[in-house]
Design a protein that fits this description.
This protein has about 140 residues and is an all-alpha fold. It has one domain. Helices cover about 75% and strands about 0% of the residues. The chain has 5 helices and no strands. The chain is elongated.
Length: about 140
C-alpha cells in the first residue's frame, strides 16, 4: 500500500511540475530556442516537434526513470504509460491548436503528436535508463 501511495505521489508531482513548467517557462523557452530560427528538412520537423514541448515533457522523463528504479519491468511500464497518458491528456487540455482552413495535414499530425510526447519520452527514459541493482545484505 505504501508503495502505491509513493507511485501516486510521483504521478502527481510529474503532472504538477509539467503544468507549472508549461505555464511559467514555455514563453521564455520559445523566445530563447525557437523564435527567429529556421528548421528545415526532416530533422527540422522533428526538432520543431520536440523543442517546443520540452518545457512540458521533462517531468515525464523523470517519472519514467523513477518507475524504472522502483519496479519490475511490467509494473513499472504500466505506471510509466499511465503517467505519460495523463500528461498527454493534461497537455491536450492546456494547449489548443487553431489552424486555418488551408492548413496541411502535417500541421494536424505534428500537433497531435505533441500530445503523445509525454508517454513516448517517459517510456524511452524507462527503457534507456539502467536499473540500479538492489541494495541489501545477502544472507548466506
Amino acid at each position: 500500500m505504501k508503495q502505491s501511495r509513493t507511485d501516486v505521489l510521483i504521478v502527481a508531482v510529474a503532472l504538477a511540475a509539467s503544468f507549472l513548467s508549461l505555464i511559467l517557462f514555455s514563453h521564455l523557452w520559445w523566445r530563447l530556442t525557437i523564435q527567429g530560427r529556421v528548421f528545415s528538412g526532416t530533422a527540422g520537423r522533428i526538432a520543431m516537434l520536440l523543442i517546443p514541448s520540452l518545457p512540458f515533457v521533462w517531468p515525464y522523463l523523470g517519472a519514467g526513470i523513477m518507475f524504472r528504479q522502483r519496479h519490475a519491468i511490467s509494473r513499472g511500464l504500466k505506471w510509466t504509460l499511465g503517467t505519460g497518458a495523463l500528461g498527454g491528456a493534461l497537455h491536450a487540455l492546456l494547449v489548443r491548436g487553431s489552424f486555418p482552413p488551408e492548413a496541411g495535414l502535417q500541421s494536424y499530425v505534428e500537433f497531435c503528436a505533441a500530445h503523445l510526447l509525454p508517454a513516448i519520452l517517459a517510456v524511452a527514459a524507462f527503457f534507456i535508463w539502467p536499473k540500479r541493482p538492489a541494495q541489501g545484505v545477502a544472507i548466506a
